[in-house]
Design goal:
The structure holds two protein chains of two kinds.
Chain A: H1 2-14, E1 16-24, H2 49-66, H3 71-82, H4 94-114, E2 119-122, E3 131-138, H5 144-157
Helix pairs in contact in A: 2-4
Chain B: H1 2-12, H2 27-33, E1 47-50, E2 55-58, H3 62-89, H4 93-114, E3 119-120, H5 125-139, E4 151-156, E5 159-166, E6 171-172, E7 178-180, E8 185-187, E9 192-194, E10 199-201, H6 206-238, H7 240-246, H8 248-276, H9 281-286, H10 306-315, E11 335-336, E12 346-347, H11 352-357, H12 364-371, H13 382-393, H14 401-408, E13 423-424, E14 430-431, H15 451-460, H16 464-476, E15 479-480
Parallel strand pairs in B: 13-15
Antiparallel strand pairs in B: 1-2, 3-8, 4-5, 5-6, 7-8, 9-10, 11-12, 13-14
The chains are: A alpha+beta, B mainly alpha.
């Protein structure tokens, strides 16, 4: 785990940022948090569509879970009101718990799928939940198309 | 194994550190010396922060202190002068219930006033550039004096809703969000800006606001009723005038409560209606979902029944603050710098190569970035921008002045697109209702100013001093709300 993260940092600091793609929010179901699953054209050469769509769909599911209005959230809300919201000094809200889960999921996706392809997903919470920002990196010494081949040649050397 | 394979060829190519970090080597030692700033210190909106970012309020807090003083004095007088008599004559439960109500009122007041109402952080420069690119593609790149308005249409549960572009925050506002001109922030599910609470009322603090006015109604009625009871009980023994002489404080309490009851109870009733129909004050004032607009007009956000709407508004999940005010400013996080003398500047430390690849709108930024030696954006504005400002300012046609003001939403004088309605409750409870300003066509690319100068010009007309006086005028000149 430590070496993988170390390499994510290296990716950020040693590769050069070529472009950023922004996935906007999908408001067709109201104000609940959902992101568009449309596959951006800039990523066509970098990542397979099903992998990408899977990630976004998973994120949407997590956000829906955070904002779900069911028995548990009502209970939490009533309990909080009854304790004059002091209870939040001790425990974190369900929303915050799910956000932590999302942060972990994005980290894992970055390490396993996106960083090896020269991509990086930024957690939407750092962008005000407006966009999913995907940074596209490329090697300085080679063009964009070569970065894919250098990673594959590197992996084949192993 | 795979990761090592990726790392090795990159290391061989000797990447320079300049690309993704702060630009000049000179900058880095300086940055090491400066202590890390917290994000609230670099916050671009017009908010005040206390307790190292834990407390967040609007800029004008005078009326909030008035509210606090009124509540404290009236309750204090009640507990000191009326409660001893009443607890002996009637029941000691009276001060207890009064105490509970009082604590609840203060708690909800502080929670409403001090918390983040749901401020949307401004777009990072990359996001803004990306949006600009998309807008240009959508509208065609030719820009006359009046390019088409920047709106996006979205269908929500069958209703077509227009999303407007906010020029200050450089984002398309989510549905139900609005830009508060007093706080200069876009707020999610913006209800209104309440001077009495000293903050905007939005998604994150609406339930506290509602609890506050509800409990304050109960407290006011409670105090009013029991003070009257007290005076009546005393006058049975001593006669009315003697009773008043013995408890002069009661007179003051009755007067304050009498005038407050109408407005506060009325307001509670109004907000109960809003909650049960899942509307914001904005939407209700504009009649966005009223059936008068059309047969098929309905509220797409309503859950269908009153109970669900109430539960959702009051007991639903509370989203966390998006602005992370106590976090530290990362050197590689692009942050819009706070306005200095009304000029907003985006101090990004992103790679120069990326900037060069960005749209023409941001082309001037690399120039300014390299001038930045120290604080992001603050001191470097002198050179390039002062040149742009007067140039950009002069050729602005008078017709675009409403557009400039709509950027900040500050001038209530706009006639054609102005939707700033002011409501004044009968007895002095003003709520500065700011409906979302329509975004009419933005001023096009000004011929001589750089595109960045274009945005500067918009902000350059933002003069804090005149804006404050305008705001004061608009707060003073309120229209009575007859319906409540």
């Amino acid at each position: 785990m430590a070496t993988e993260f170390h390499n994510l940092q290296e990716l950020r600091h040693s590769a050069s940022l070529a472009n950023k793609v922004f996935l906007q929010r999908d408001y067709s179901e109201g104000t609940t948090c959902r992101f568009q699953t449309k596959f951006p054209s800039e990523l066509e050469s970098r990542i397979e569509r099903p992998l990408f769509e899977d990630t976004v769909k998973r994120l949407n599911i997590y956000y829906a879970e955070a904002e779900k209005m069911g028995g548990q959230s009502y209970l939490e809300g009533c309990l909080a009101c009854a304790t004059a919201y002091l209870i939040f000094l001790c425990m974190e809200t369900r929303y915050e718990k799910v956000l932590k889960k999302i942060g972990g999921y994005i980290q894992e996706q970055n390490e396993k799928i996106y960083a090896p392809r020269g991509l990086l997903i930024t957690d939407p919470i750092e962008r005000g939940m407006r966009v999913i920002e995907i940074s596209i990196y490329e090697d300085r010494g080679s063009s964009g198309s070569c970065s894919g081949s250098s990673s594959t040649s590197g992996s084949s050397a192993r | 194994m795979q990761q090592l394979g990726v790392a090795e060829p990159m290391r061989e190519c000797e990447y320079s550190q300049i690309s993704t970090r702060s630009s000049t080597p000179m900058e880095t030692p300086y940055k090491k010396r400066t202590p890390k700033k917290r994000k609230w210190q670099a916050f671009p909106g017009r908010n005040k922060f206390y307790c190292n970012g834990r407390i967040m309020m609007a800029r004008q807090t005078g009326v909030f202190y008035l509210t606090l003083v009124l509540i404290l004095i009236t309750s204090g007088l009640f507990f000191t002068f009326d409660c001893p008599f009443l607890s002996v004559q009637l029941t000691p439960a009276i001060p207890v219930i009064g105490g509970v109500l009082f604590v609840f009122v203060l708690g909800t007041l502080f929670r409403t006033s001090f918390s983040d109402p749901g401020v949307l952080p401004r777009a990072t420069p990359d996001e803004a550039a990306d949006l600009e690119r998309q807008i240009d593609v959508a509208n065609g790149s030719s820009s006359g004096y009046r390019p088409p308005p920047r709106t996006k249409e979205v269908v929500i549960n069958g209703q077509t809703v227009k999303l407007k572009y906010c020029f200050t925050c450089k984002i398309f506002r989510p549905p139900r969000a609005s830009h508060c001109s007093l706080c200069d922030n876009c707020v999610e599910r913006f209800d209104h800006h309440c001077p009495w609470v000293g903050n905007c009322v939005g998604k994150r603090n609406y339930r506290f606001f509602y609890m506050f006015i509800l409990s304050l109604s109960f407290l006011t009625i409670f105090i009013f009723a029991f003070v009257i009871t007290h005076v009546i009980l005393r006058s049975h023994r001593q006669g009315f005038l003697n009773a008043l002489k013995d408890t002069p404080a009661s007179v003051l309490e009755v007067v304050v409560c009498f005038f407050s009851v109408w407005s506060i109870v009325g307001l509670s009733g109004f907000h109960t209606y809003l909650i049960s129909s899942n509307q914001t004050t904005n939407e209700d004032i504009k009649g966005s979902w009223s059936s008068k607009r059309g047969k098929d007009n309905y509220n797409p956000y309503s859950h269908g029944n009153i109970f669900t709407n109430c539960c959702a508004a009051l007991c639903g999940p509370l989203p966390p603050s998006l602005i992370d005010r106590r976090g530290f400013v990362q050197s590689d996080t692009p942050l819009p710098t706070p306005p200095t003398n009304g000029i907003t500047m985006y101090g990004s430390t992103q790679s120069q190569s990326h900037m060069a690849a960005a749209t023409p709108l941001m082309q001037s930024e690399p120039v300014i970035l390299t001038d930045e030696a120290s604080l992001p954006g603050r001191t470097s504005l002198g050179g390039p921008c002062s040149g742009a400002l007067p140039l950009g300012g002069q050729p602005t046609p008078p017709t675009s002045t409403p557009n400039l003001s709509c950027d900040n939403g500050m001038l209530p004088l706009r006639n054609d697109h102005s939707e700033a309605l002011h409501h004044h409750h009968t007895d002095g409870v003003h709520h500065h209702f700011l409906t979302p300003e329509e975004a009419p066509s933005p001023p096009g690319m000004l011929p001589c100013g750089s595109p960045l100068g274009h945005s500067h010009t918009i902000q350059g007309f933002y003069n804090p001093a005149s804006q404050d006086s305008l705001h004061e005028d608009s707060v003073r000149g309120l229209v009575k709300l007859s319906s409540v």
